[in-house]
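Need tokens for this chain, all 157 residues.
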Amino acid sequence: MPLLFALTMFVSASLLFMIQPMIGKMTAPLLGGTPAVWNTCMVFFQALLLGGYYYAHKITSAFGSHRQTAIHTALLILPAAVMVLAAVFSETHLPIPILPSLSPQGSDYPFFGVIVMLAVAISMPFFVISTSAPLLPMVQLYRSSVVARPLLSVRGE
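Here are the structure tokens for all 157 residues:
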């Protein structure tokens, strides 16, 4: 089981840090390829990463393990459903729809336009992936405490 947790953490971290430059490179040509676009992409992704960590902190401190599982399962299903719908109904049939119509037109400061375009395209899947780093150790902790409890009672402690 520890190998599965380690593999899941590795895949999650790899996805996080592969998505950032990939989406940045997909959006930069739509917006002129300026450094402001790239910087805005990185700010967006770091803010979502921080939001995912905050969500993980709040859900683990406010709810029990069964409630956490139900909430996080719903959160996992939502982006998967949105990505399937985007692949079916978008004109490019890609699961991550980069919509040129949302790109800011004729703006010297494309910050808010880039934020809106990225929020529509990738915010939900990236947010869910960013929650795995803090939540997976908690899952392992819950599992180990459930296994350890009967062992402690057998020994008479």
